[in-house]
Amino acid sequence: MVSGKVYLVGAGPGAADLLTVRAANMLARAEIVFHDALINKETLSHCAAGCVLVPVGTRGGFRAPNRQERIHELLAEAAGRYSTIVRLKGGDPCVFGRGGEEMEFLTASGIPWEVVPGISAGIGGLSLLGFPVTHRDVSSSVTLLTGSRTTTGMFDELPLPAPLTPSQTLVFYMSFQHVGNIAHTLMTRGMPPETPALCVSWLSYPHQALLTAPLSQIGNAVAASELTPPSLLVVGDVVAFWQRLQAGRDV
């Protein structure tokens, strides 16, 4: 029998002080929290004494077969034992966080749920850098994409806007392992090789690292760097605009 409610909570891009007030309040109320591996330990300090913390990220050692299905099972089991359950995700639950799959499961299982939004790395996280993903004179649109092969199988099948022009901003999540292949795909689809690109790893953390290069060189530059995942890849003229901003400010 279902006795609890599941809250899908966004933890933001990483830094604990980027957690929303509502998210912090939910963590303080939670009896059990299922959290991703990359969640900042300071973020978890909002949990009350006695709250059960369950890591369900692969980096945290949770490598169960059919991992997402196992998370669904854990949420259902918890809903029968606890009144307030939090599923804590990096960024925003509904932006490449599999929140939609979990909402679908909870709805089908008759389990009440609610979403507590978080700051997504590809929008709010970049804003932390003083990076405007859109600009009236530079970038007329922004497209969020997954840099993982898991949804398309082939980078040639990426659902890219057409035609591709540098006046668009393309933000790739989960892209670190495939930066070179993504860049190649973009160029074969018409994006000029000289289009500026930015790769940022561990956004908002003290060890955050940034690297910029033309699209034709970004793959080799990242491969030769000391950057590590998690990371974002950003492509478009707005990268050059952001670089000019950085050159003119005290940082």
What are the defining features of this structure?
251 residues, Methyltransferase, Cobalt-precorrin-4 Transmethylase, Domain 2, single chain, five-stranded mixed sheet, alpha/beta, 29% helix, five-stranded parallel sheet, Cobalt-precorrin-4 Transmethylase, domain 1, elongated
Question: How would you portray this structure in words?
Answer:
29% of the residues lie in helices and 21% in strands. Helix 6 packs antiparallel against helix 7. It has two domains: 5-119, Tetrapyrrole methylase, N-terminal domain (Cobalt-precorrin-4 Transmethylase, domain 1, 3-Layer(aba) Sandwich), CATH 3.40.1010; 122-247, Methyltransferase, Cobalt-precorrin-4 Transmethylase, Domain 2. By secondary structure, the protein is α/β, with parallel strands linked by helices. The strands form two sheets. Strands 3-2-4-1-5 form a five-stranded parallel β-sheet, sandwiched between helices. A five-stranded mixed β-sheet has the order 6-7-10-8-9, with helices on both faces.
